[in-house]
Amino acid sequence: MSSQNLDGENLIKPYDALLALYAQKNRDSFGRTYSENTDPERLPYQRDRDRIIHCPAFRRLKGKLQVVSPNKGDHYRTRLTHTIEVTQIARDLARQLQLNEDLCEAIALAHDLGHTPFGHAGEYALNQKMKAFGKHFEHNLQSIKIVTELEKRYPEFPGLNLSYEVIEGLRKHDQGFTRPDGVEVNWPSLESQLVDLCDEMAYLAADLEDAFRGGFLSWKQLEQNQLCQFVIKGFSKNESGFEFQTPELSPSRLSHQLLHKLIHQLSTDSISNIQNLPPLKDGTKEGLDQIKALQTPTKLIAFTPKFEAQFLDLKSFLYKNFYERPEVRSHTEQGKQIISDVFDHLLLHPTDIPENFQSGQSIEDRICNYIAGMTDEFAIRFLA
Ligand code: MG
């Protein structure tokens, strides 16, 4: 990887000048694995974003449900709409924090590319299958595999040849990185940390809305949760001063208001928390290096401890009242079974694996890559 010949030479200077000390500057990018002709009119991470949006793995996100639930309808979220929501929140907060919006956008758009069909149930089932071969499956690592190996669009290289910082940002749950220059750092960029937090906010708020819309949670139950209670208290007035009474609102307005205010509250809290960044040395790249080298036990972009506790409590509330409900569970079990059956079938009939998944790896890896890329419907139809 090289920091020479970066894209966007006509834009880098003015754009980087807008960013905070601790932001990832375009000029400091480690660049791409394979050298290519540069595009002077697009910044490096803008070009990464364009590559992600135009790849088939991105389009397949529309066929993967966020939560496998018995309720079907046009308004439930898919991985694609979830991805767009994460991207929107991340870009808004990045601009507020003067972080690199393009980098956030690229990481957010690619963050769920490696998700299996049937949400986390599918991931669990595929992981169980791979364990029998002494391996494991994890969707974040699969996202990296997709953008570095499995996407085959360009004649000169495998994958999408994205900038190093985008790939680093997809290693979501990792701590401890060796940069291309050999330097060991503890944390990924703040852009990556921000996307991670926005992912948490977006899926929790959205699952809550979907659970309410689907009739799995009543308004009464929501009012019993501490964080929801706090958010609902602020319901009587909106930003323009329009006053209303909660009982007067239709369920769709109620759920939208809850989602809107919850994300707003979570964003405000995380932004207030980041004001506690350690003092940064004034300079070019030092702020970013300082952030990455910090020995803090937790990420810098996080909720305040009080909100973190309430957030976790809301998560377990959702587990208990939505994900773990028998009718939802029976659907997730069906999803697991389908993944397991497709895996077993392909082991017995490896010629059913398409040509573009056939190159150079073990049979279980080829099956795993193929299944992970399937949409829910494709997996259901596969053995029908
Ligand atoms: Mg996600």
Outline the structure in words:
By secondary structure, the protein is an all-alpha fold. 55% of the residues lie in helices and 1% in strands. The chain is built from 17 helices and two strands. The protein has helices at residues 12-16, 44-53, 56-59, 79-97, 101-110, 119-131, 139-150, 164-170, 190-213, 219-224, 226-233, 251-274, 286-293, 305-323, 326-348, 363-373, 376-382; strands at residues 177-178, 184-185. Strands 1-2 form a two-stranded antiparallel ribbon. Helix 5 crosses helix 8, helix 5 crosses helix 9 (190-213) and helix 6 (119-131) packs antiparallel against helix 16 (363-373). The termini are far apart.
Topology of helices and strands:
Layout: H1 12-16, H2 44-53, H3 56-59, H4 79-97, H5 101-110, H6 119-131, H7 139-150, H8 164-170, E1 177-178, E2 184-185, H9 190-213, H10 219-224, H11 226-233, H12 251-274, H13 286-293, H14 305-323, H15 326-348, H16 363-373, H17 376-382
Helix pairs in contact: 2-5, 4-5, 4-9, 5-8, 5-9, 6-15, 6-16, 8-9, 9-12, 9-14, 11-12, 15-16, 15-17
The structure holds magnesium ion.
Magnesium ion (MG) is lined by residues 82, 86, 111-112, 199, 203.
What's this model, at a glance?
The chain has 17 helices and 2 strands. It is mainly α and 384 residues long. It starts with 11 loop residues before the first helix and ends with a helix.
